[in-house]
Fold:
Amino acid sequence: MANCGHDCILPRPFSVHRVTNYKNLELYFAVLEDGKGTDWLSKREAGDNIGLFGPLGNGFSVRSTSQNLLLVAGGMGIASLYFLAEDELKKGHSVTLLYGAATRNPYIEGRLIPGAKFITATEDGTSGHHGKVTDLIPQYIEWADQIFACGPLPMYKAMARMPELKSRPVQVSLEVRMGCGRGVCYGCTIKTRQGLRQVCQDGPVFNLEDVIWEELASV
Structure:
């Protein structure tokens, strides 16, 4: 959670994009058109101080028996999956990263992860597959021992409807509005098959099959 200036009473939640030299933390985020917090954060310069607290909640969990990992990123969901891919490649896992966006993203394509298979999908056809990233998933389901995803709600709902994923281990990192990040305000509460859960404390990572997607509204 990042404090974003005096005009923002509440902190803003971000995924860790990279950690270098075991001490340098990188965030990757979009500056929203009406986003006071992200706009303020994007204007910070070297030497400025920013208030951070975390990490909060849980993270992706890779089984000891898994070797082939399929990562599915939609839009800004690449932030946390980039970190996961780098970390698991160091441990000797095979990683295929599917990245989908509305249009080509030169920043991401210019920062390919050595050792990972990187495949793109764009809705306007400017890079890779012309369509949605979920179109690519069926090609890799049998190869993957585990699937990890981070992206917008429509992507998750599409994945939840895919019969091929019904019996597969799929973990997703939810993007929802968070108020406090400490489980006090209950602003990020969602409905799961195990009852009400708070994304900031019980998540943000959940099993795809556990979330009641029809009860989760876009924010």
User: Anything to note?
Assistant: The two ends are 18 Å apart (CA to CA). The mean pLDDT is 91.
